[in-house]
Amino acid sequence: xxxxxxxxIQLLLSLSLLIxxxxxxxxxxxxxxxxxxxxxxxxxxxxxxxxKKKIGGTVYGIGWLPLGGYVKISGMIDESMDxxxxxxxxxxxxxxxxxxxQRLIIMLGGVTVNLILGFLIFIMIxxxxxxxxxxxxxMPEGFAVVDEFKEYGFKDGxxxxxxxxxxxxxxxxxxxxxxxxxxxxxxxxxxxGEQETINIPENIGESMWEEGIMMPFIPIQRPILDxxxxxxxxxxxxxxxxxxxxxINEQEIGYWHELAPIASENKGKEIxxxxxxDNEIKSVMVTPDEEGKFGVTPQSNFDIKTQKYNLAxxxxxxxxxxxxxxxxxxxxxxxxxxxxxxxxxxxFGAIGGLFPDxxxxxxxxxxxxxISIILAFMNILPIPALDGGxxxxxxxxxxxxxxxxDKFMEIAQMIGFFxxxxxxxxxxxxxxxxxxxx
Length: 438
Known about the structure:
Strand order of the largest sheet: 6-5-7-8
Number of strands: 16
Oligomer: single chain
């Protein structure tokens, strides 16, 4: 099956699951507090619905616009902007008639479900599949190190032993830790057998971002192609999985990390790639894209180990993994407000790209857990029209004892809605731009 279709199916399935459970997080406490729910929809039913059925006092349905979902709760100022209902006297079964603490629980229900779901999926992954890692012993050739980090004392061929004085199990995670976590020292084993602890400057993550060095440590691997994206330069030129690169632009390629600098220097320029396929030497012309990439990944020349866990261990490790996933996302969120971060925002295309090219349940559930945690954080942001916006107004009411007036709420909801639409259009516009021009 085409990789694009596989990703699209996984994205649709994942979002459908997350949206339904998120809305159930609002629906269930609303029902518990005897609040009328008029609609429960997966996707938006603008003008018409693909399916709908009224059960009790609630219309359940599936819309045609897959941008989310919603529950319409009586007596609540939401995206439906039902002013007619709000102009009538409050009824006891309406949202606005309930105590502030009940309304707060109803509004926090969706975020709570997404957060719990993400943690539960990570726990399930740990129990069913365990945790993959690549330790120092599995990387005999170590890492290639960018020049900026060699100034600190790192050398090509280094293997990561410890971070902040503690054994570091998964060497591949070193870049992520440097960028998003508080790393003050790294202990390495040089290729000459010498062990050294190197101090890391403060705010190293911010320096990496500003200088565009997101991968200071690159595993040393042979230049043999593993995956080749058909719509990217290498795929268009005819390179295939298993091809072994010999030279690029007349420069000999002995290791994978030597590819990136040459490609980066020749963005948009046609260059010659000489490679070996089935013991035959061949040549093609390839034009690196505007980011200086070919659209290829290398075959791994190191062993990937798996740490298995029992149920009790899975709960601990899954919770820990979920915590750090949330913390890392919150930490890096600040970069969204920079010009470079804004240009890298992505919409449904970027989210779909997180899923594996072939159907893989472990990859599917991992990505679903990640999206669930991201949705929880994004929904709690204090933006009107998001759950977090409603929560802010409810907290204001609980502290001051006064409700914001309905007119103010309507205007705030409308502003928040337009902000969200603008963000969705911008993020998906970035996806389209990258698809067309990169």
